[in-house]
Amino acid sequence: MSVLLRGFIYSFFLVCWCGAAIAQPAKSSPSASIPTPASLALEAIMQRHLAALGDFSKVQSRRARLRIIGLAPFEIPTTVEAKRPNLLRRDVSVQGQLQVSSYDGKDAWKIDPFLPSGKRAVDMPTEELPAMLEESYFDGILVAAQKQGFPLQYAGLDTQDGRRVHVLKVSVPATGESTIYLDADSFLEIKRLQKRPVMGRMTELEVYTSDYRMQDGLMMAYRFEIGTKGASATQRMSMVVDAVENNPAIALSRFQRTGN
């Protein structure tokens, strides 16, 4: 597998699977400053957004089976497992080989049979670590921003592809700013714009989220499309979710380096 393909896989997962439809309400801080009109608007929109998704506070773990399409001449089967508070594992099957990336809350490691390290678990490379840490936020970056005090602001109403949207901007220290567009009627995310490193260069990427389905009383996205800013629909790569399990039994050893 080429270095280019590996690099796109890491970027692809960060922008698509980082809690795109997984969230729970965050509690207000009693020491918060006096509300402004913008902060009141942000609070109201976040409440509507979280209500549209459903109560994910009862979800303690999840497993998703999906396929990446358009990144290579073949589909790439993938399994993503996550567990509260911030445990994450990705198993990517490429040409009969299994590529593993995992974070157990403290230790981030990987197995890449296409690198000289082969099937031996090694430390997550420095350039990949920020993306892995951001992806590990179980409830996504909007709730993480509220809980951890990351900059989060309401940027007003806009139009995207003929749809009215609420625009939110969130900045995560390790990976920078993302612009998130919520449909003004459903309050579900339909697009995300963010800059991410691809092959060592900062690239502006657009992620389109669609095919929301109700499962276990929760609204979840089953399709993501990603491309460089301005790319047409035919030029985007896709991630299609085939199945999602909420609260599956996942052993902690799945995330630990000794549990390869």
Describe this structure in words.
The chain is an alpha+beta fold. It has one domain (55-254): Lipoprotein localisation LolA/LolB/LppX (outer membrane lipoprotein receptor (LolB), chain A), CATH 2.50.20. It is 18% helix and 43% strand. It is built from four helices and 13 strands. It has a 13-stranded antiparallel β-sheet. The longest helix has 17 residues, at 37-53. The two termini are 21 Å apart.
Features:
260 residues, outer membrane lipoprotein receptor (LolB), chain A, alpha+beta
Assembly state: single chain
Count the DSSP helices.
4
Any idea of the CATH class?
Mainly Beta
Proportion of residues in helical segments = 10-25%
User: How would you sum up the global shape?
Assistant: globular
- Report the order of strands and helices: HHEEEEEEHHEEEEEEE
Number of domains: 1
In terms of DSSP E residues, the strand content is: 35-45%
- Which runs of at least 5 residues are low in confidence (pLDDT < 50)? 1-11, 17-32
The number of distinct β-strands equals 13
The CATH fourth-level homologous superfamily: Lipoprotein localisation LolA/LolB/LppX
| Largest sheet, spatial ordering of strands | 6-5-4-3-2-1-13-12-11-10-9-8-7
Radius of gyration: 18 Å
User: Biggest β-sheet: count, sense, barrel?
Assistant: 13 strands, antiparallel
- The CATH architecture assignment turns out to be Clam
How confident overall, as mean pLDDT?
83
End-to-end separation: 21 Å
CATH topology: outer membrane lipoprotein receptor (LolB), chain A
Secondary-structure-derived class: alpha+beta
Signal peptide: 1-23
Keywords: Signal
Organism: Undibacterium pigrum
Protein name: Outer membrane lipoprotein-sorting protein
